[in-house]
Amino acid sequence: MPQSDLTGFNPDQLISNLQLLTNIGRLLEIDCSQMDNGEIFLKKLRKLQNSYYTTQNRLDTFEVIVPTIQQNYIEISSAAKILNEKQQKITNVQNAKFDEYESNRMSTMAEMKFVQNKLQSFDINAKPAVTHTEVEQLQKDVDNTRCEYEILKQQISHWMPCDEPTIDSLTLKVESVRDELKSIEDEISISNEYEMYPTGGDDDQFASNASYRMMNMNVDSMIDYLSDDESDSEMPAGCNLNVSNPVRQVICQMLDNYLNEGKSNEEIEFPSSLFCHERVFVRQQAQQRNLVCRTVGRGATRVIAVSKSPNELISNNSNITPKQLTLSLDNPQLTQDVHVYLQSCPISTEDNDLLQAKIQKTPSSLNDWYYCTLLRSGNPLFQSADIKPRVPDQRLLSPESSIQFLPIDKTSTRENLLQLIENNKMLFISGPPSIGKSIRICQYLHDGHLDKQWPIRILHSCTSSLSAFALSSFIKSSDYLTFDNMSSTNGVSSLITITTHELLLRTLICGDHLLKSSITHLIIDDVHKRSHTLDMILAYLKDSQHKFRHLKIVFLQTTMQYDTLVKYFGNVATYTIDTNEIMNEKIDEIFLERIVIDIERMDQNKCFSIATYGTQLLDYWCRSAEQSSVHHRISSSIICEPCQNIYSLLEQYMTASERYLNDLIGRCFVNGLIEDFQQMIKFLNQHADKYNYQHPLTLVSPLMCLAMWSMKSLIEPVLLTNSLFFNLRAVNNFSAIDFARKYATHETIDLLELYTTHDPLLLEQLLSLTNNNSNVTPTIALMKYYLQTRNCNEVIDYQLILAVVKYICKMRTEHILIFLPGPDEISVMNDLCLNSNLSKEFGIEVHRIWNSSSWLVMNNNSSRLLILCDANCETGVPFRNICCVIDTGITLEKCYHTTTSKLLPKYNWISQTSATERKHRANVGEGSVCYRLYPQSLFDEKINENINAEMARQPLLENIMQAKLFAWTNCSVAEFMLKLPFPPPFAVVRAGISQLKNLELFDKWEDLVDLGAYCLALPIVELPYAMMIVYAHLFKCLQPILIIISTLIIGDPFESIANVDCLLELKKRLDSNQNSDHFVYYRLYQQWEQSLDKRQFCLDWKVKYFRLKQIDQFQKWLSSFLININFAKFFYPTHDGVLDLNSNASCWPLIQAILVRCLPQNLITYDQKWFTNRNELVQLDPISVLNNMQLKEESIVFTICDDLIRSNKGLFVGKCCSMVNQVVLLFFGTMNETLKLNDYQMILSDRNFFKLRTKLNACIRRKLQSLGCIDDTTDDYHSFDLLVKIFSNLK
């Protein structure tokens, strides 16, 4: 060291520097041995400097976050009032819950007292235990509500600086949060609990986010409220759970109550309003109690659910084995037949390849073949496409033609229409009903082109075959082409062709050759009917009208509002026929109010007195009955003092037996003594016509008294009375089932519900009189009295219709037209009129309009007629000389039932448009009358103005298949369905496509397969029934399948008798130990067809003659349709001569196999109870033949049914079900490769059974793919014949 440096040496400074270096070394964790080298200080100082910069960057990050938090606080202030409102609502709900709990508690105590007194009155010592389930549920609701209240209260106090936040208070709140963040930064900078230095490992990439994650732990509730992105599935260490004490207490109390319940199969859910840190607290408390937590939902709907430890449940579930069903055959002959079958028809490589699922879409020629062959076969409308337009050679409206003078001829419509049609490609024509639009439009066009020497060919499409036939009878030189006359359409050459919408749609699917080269004018009639077929035609015309340059399209409708369809087609011309010139003659409308006064001769004042005093007396009876049941008081006064005078007046007109029965009804209703009930039953047995008697003031019937006091032993014999009216109503609109629901036991309610039929239309009439009228007027009282006392077992009041007919016959001499809901009502009314001798008394003949042949007979008959028809005659059927129309206001619609996947009949009110069309059927001019058998208030307020779209209540499966053919190359099925005028929801269309895939009618690429093509060729909406016909052709058992299908579509032919045992005995005689309702219907039809006196046969077997007649007509129509289109020729193309399609009709297991193959969703299983394929408990119909079976508890039975009806009592099987052999299920059931059927694992004792199933499925698929091919060399029919032999040995 130089000397100059030594002079400035300071020992004290050196010592201090050494001490400073020592302290720095300690701070930097440097040992004294390392201080010799100064580089260690530089290295450590650089590391310290890097740490300083890192900390500074993190502090800058916090400064960036602070404005975001401040903005979030400002946004939260806007929700402060909403939170306060929620707090107030929760308080109100809590108070309401407490009030409801207290009210329910008092009601429960009163009901317990009532039950105890009632049991004592019947001398029952063993009192049933009263459960507290409802009280416990209310307590849980109160706890949840209190928890929500405390949580919201804590949230508001946490986030809001005061009750009414301001900008200043929010600013202070933000500043406090900023101070909190700064304190967090200080903790980060000095804390040794968290690693802040890089270690060189894989976790270095997360070091820069460590402080940010720690900050999120402390502001977790705010982040969770704003974005809910953080999950509470984990509990991070160091998280500060800021949960208020009230919330803690409520959460702990709910968990403790749940532990004390002792239920391991249930769980409790905490409200979704919990914050993240509160859910973490729930998890902590649940873990302390050995409970399991799971989080459900996300965002505002996130809830946390707590359940007990699943160890015991897992151990129990692990011991559960799948249900197994061993399939073993004890029949050696059957086993030998299977072995012989596999030897003669072994499984080939082609069979295995055919059953393999396709992994790639392959081009198919099904489209061309289907267009060219199947739908065009036997289609007379398509065959007429070769007729070219030409100039007419004669005039249709010449003076010498003696054409009937129609109302439309009074207007100047002809020239206007011809000009509009000539100048426009598409035209909407609207006008009143029954003026001759449909008749004259064709004649105007025909004669107009004759005058101009222009070629023409007209195609007129109607809604039904009856309308088309009636229209063709009025238009000379026209052809009539429908499904009904396909066999008699040879030599079609006229310029005017009249058809139906169904046949037109079928022809358009075949191609556009008809509209492109043959038709010049297309007339679509009754477009306001909104049928599903018409919707498909309209969608096709809108999409394809540009292809037909010379085609004129005319739409006809009776409603004046066609804005929807005009907007649908775009800018189209419209024309409304002037009604001022032709509507001068007014048709009077008489509603039910006037009918019961003028015809039934009911007294308004009497009905008003009954409504007034009867209500008072019934209230007095109900109060007395309650006191009698509770306090055991026997009331001696049956008639209260205010009603004494009016009852005395009514009593003057009573007989002695009626006075005695009135007294018995009053005593039974009020006191409920068994002695009085026994006397009343004894009196009713002596006077069988008094079962439906009603008290003159209260309108209470004997059945109502029995139902109110739960006299089950006395109710059962009364219900077996055939003439009993179940739905009679008292003055308060209560029926017997209503009194039972309010006062009786559940056993009585269940018994009455088996026999009681609900009539929603009658209830709707009563509600229309009650709800909208606070003050009861004499007219309203009259209507209520009529509806409460009429026979409600029938939808239609036939006696009232008969009275109206007799009333008209005394004053008028013209025809009378009656609109009834359907064929059943037409048949019942026809029999009633014939039994009433109307022909002898008034010289009027009863005529039913079923089809075109009945219309032809009516036109050729010159006598006075009483015409019975349904909704098909509302439009398009030109009646003549009708003076009066009787409108029941009810129509029978077939609605698609989603549970059963089939169409079920449903009664419904007509629309106001249909009511107007029915009224205008009266056409004699001045003096025409329309009698409406429903209240005017119902017509004005309840009935819809327009007709509901049929697409909304029809299955979309057939329409989806048709749309697939229309949109084969243009667009997808769903896209085409969205082009309809009233498109169904997209989700419904996708569900229909999925169902078609399950039925194996669509492949996985949504292409139509061969089986679907054949089903679409048949005129049956229910696709499972069409599939049955296809399989019946394959296995040659057509007749029984057609009879079963006809019965299922038309309805049950057996009468609805009250004696169920008698009906079951009749079915048992037809069953022949087959255990099948389908077989019963098949045998019934065969015996009816072979009987000489068919009406006497129906009387002996208690079946409906008209129903069997309908089944016979439908079955014959199906057979003739199959013959006309040569359907069997596609299955047997090389067969010449007469083909026997019923050679295997006697093999009933084969019929079972077809039912199982086509109705897989309706397979139910008996395993101690009946279950569906979805493991839903199901009950059999009381009149099913399977109720006579004695099944063992350990046995497992499979049954195929046709109906699955869902009600508030559960799921019920319809009237048609058949027990199925297990071997049949193996061959035809929809089982996968593991042979699992309805949760049962099928264990095969012989592997040949599965081989036979594989071979059978391969033969069916190959034969469907080769149908119609003349060069088909497969020998699959030989396999089918051997299979029939195997089935013949089944028992």
Description:
The chain is built from 54 helices and 28 strands. Helices cover 51% and strands 10% of the residues. Helix 9 packs across helix 10. The protein is an alpha/beta fold and 1291 residues long.
Query: What is the general shape?
Result: globular
Instruction: Tell me the strand order in the biggest sheet.
Output: 7-8-6-9-10-5-11
What structural category do the secondary elements indicate?
A: alpha/beta
Report, as a whole number of angstroms, the end-to-end distance. Answer: 124 Å
Bin the helical content. Answer: 40-55%
| Uncertain ranges | 1-7, 122-131, 187-240, 311-320
Q: Write down the overall mean pLDDT.
A: 75
Residues in β-strands, percent: 5-15%
The major pleated sheet works out as:
7 strands, parallel
How many H/I helical runs?
A: 54
Rg calc? 41 Å
Give the strand tally: 28
GO molecular function: helicase activity; RNA binding
Keywords: Coiled coil
InterPro entries: Helicase-assoc_dom, P-loop_NTPase, R3H_dom_sf
Protein name: Helicase-associated domain-containing protein
